[in-house]
Amino acid sequence: MAKSSSSAKTAKKAVKKKAAATSAKPKTAKAKAPKAETAAKAKPAAKAKPATEVTFEAPPKPPLKPDGGNIFTGIGGWTFEPWRGVFYPDGLPHTRELEYAAAHLTSIEINGTFYRTQTPATFHKWASEVPNGFVFSVKGVRYVTNRSVLAEAGDSIKRFIDSGVLELGDRLGPLLWQMNPYKKFDEADFGKFLELLPPKVGDQKLRHVVEVRHDSFKTPAFIALLRQFNVGIVYSEHATYTEIADVTSDFVYARLQKGDDNLATGYPPKALDEWSERLKVWADGGQPDDLPRVDTTDAPKRPRDVYAYVIHEGKVRAPAAAMELIKRQS
User: Fold this and answer.
1) Strand partners, 68
2) CA-based, 20 to 30 A from 314: which of 19, 24, 182, 196?
3) pLDDT (tens digit, 9 = 90+) per residue, 205-247?
4) Domain map of the chain by residue range?
5) How many Å separate Cα 284 from the centre of its chain?
6) How far is CA 162 from the centre of its chain?
7) Which fold has domain 64-329?
8) Is the dihedral angle over the CA atoms 278, 284, 285, 289 positive or is it negative?
């Protein structure tokens, strides 16, 4: 009986040891967990550098002239994925891209409004994100110009202007009305269209500019109509679009569309020098003698604001080209 009792006690001890060993495993695992958590806290994930730590050299901007003769230079739009890491610094929040672009350029052509109108709140927000002296040109909605009879566009023009464009305030530059490539010149119809473009809404002065892409517009009658209504003509530097460099209003508008993304500055230095000189000639009230004109009659010589946008198809280097032009204006 003693042996049996002794064997039972030994068996119980073995069971207790096994149970203790089994119950000890979870405790060991739980004891290690805080260490792993502590290690994770000790090595936090690397944070993206603030935009202020990764800067893109901003060119100096010339002061504004109250009586005209300013040169506003920029790009088309500001949301473009290939610009991230090339123009926009790595780590820059997408919500700050307009702010960043406006700090480095002096104007932006808003193209999205060609496809759909925006809200007053959106225009107001855009205006609040750019510095004093910066201006937007705004492309008019396509429903105004993509029609056979332009004289019937009155309601569409009013709806577009009433959509909130005026919320840009003193940041508002020209309204751009782009014709399709197949639109031909009809003097009577186009004259009626120009009559529909308001020179002023309330206390807000409006500037209008038209872009045509058909050679039928290469006639002195077209130039005379634009001058009658003080409406500008887009000079398009493009391989196939119609080029008309006549000055028809109190400002000049140019779209430079022959940039090369294989060049860091978008254009060769010589071409940038030549464009810089043309912009200055326009701003001083003259007309470049190396660009094609339709009418040999010179516009009155007086200072004019100039709006120039680098907008080529690839456009990766467009911001760099625009900034090079701004450097040459200082």
Assistant:
1) none
2) 182
3) 999 999 999 999 999 999 999 999 999 999 999 999 999 999 9
4) 1-44, 64-329
5) 27
6) 22
7) TIM Barrel (3.20.20)
8) negative
